[in-house]
Amino acid sequence: MRLPAWMQRRRFATGLAITGFSLVTLAMTKAAEQHNWIGTADPDKEPEEQPAPAPAPPAPCPAPATPDPLLGPRTKEPGSWVGLSPVQSNLPIVVMAGHADSQGTASPGTPGYAVDQQNLPPMQPGIRDELFWNREVQAAVVSKGKARGLNIRSYTPPSISIANDTDPATNWSKAKVFSERGEYVLEIHFDAYRPHGFGSGLIPVLKNIRELNVVDESLAQAFGRFPRNFRGGLGGPRRGIGILEIAMLEPPLETKLRDPRTRQHTVNCLAERVVNALVQGIS
Ligand SMILES: [Zn+2]
Known about the structure:
Elements: H1 5-37, E1 93-97, H2 112-118, H3 129-147, E2 152-154, H4 171-180, E3 184-191, E4 201-203, H5 214-223, H6 235-238, E5 241-248, H7 253-258, H8 263-282
Parallel strand pairs: 1-2, 1-3, 3-5
Antiparallel strand pairs: 4-5
């Protein structure tokens, strides 16, 4: 049967409309696919169905500079020694936390600016904040140092308060033994806040212990160098301990350490400075 002309036109128009509608739908679907492919959230999905955003890569550590954005000022009283003695590539390195056995004694370490000047609670009741941060950096240095292939370990005394300096388990007694058998002993410290503190730097071992070596030199270049006979020769350097004053325990570094959101990253960056210096000194 032949349809009247007006009916034929209408069929043709309807066909065109359907085809047009399909094309538009196809285009919309394609657009939606592309939309998803570039990673934008699909508005049709419930929020919990959306793929989790990729975690942001950790911010890089601040590069060494003067003034230093991470450490703050180097020691205001610098030394002029140079460490030249070579070391073996598998030099045993022992990392200690300063004041780890002297809580409640005459030398417990600095309370830090936050506790002393801002009346904030200590990081851990019963110990000075310096010991808390010394331990954090000690642990990170040993773990990162091992990952970089260093022959490195920590020593931790059995008690936080050993009254007798000559007790065989103190940092001092152990350091004397380790140092005499050729091991490199590094004790992590934070200096007091300004105006009491000096700034960052290495207080190296005394002359009677050994010649200063390339690891001492590398740490001094990274952190600064105190005079060899600083304060007439401290207890640690007399017994073979190199004291590394990481930085003064004051803002902005102390604030970044205390903030749980920036704590681990800041500790890692401090440890990275130490480990980079150790690796450079040895190689
Ligand atoms: Zn200290």
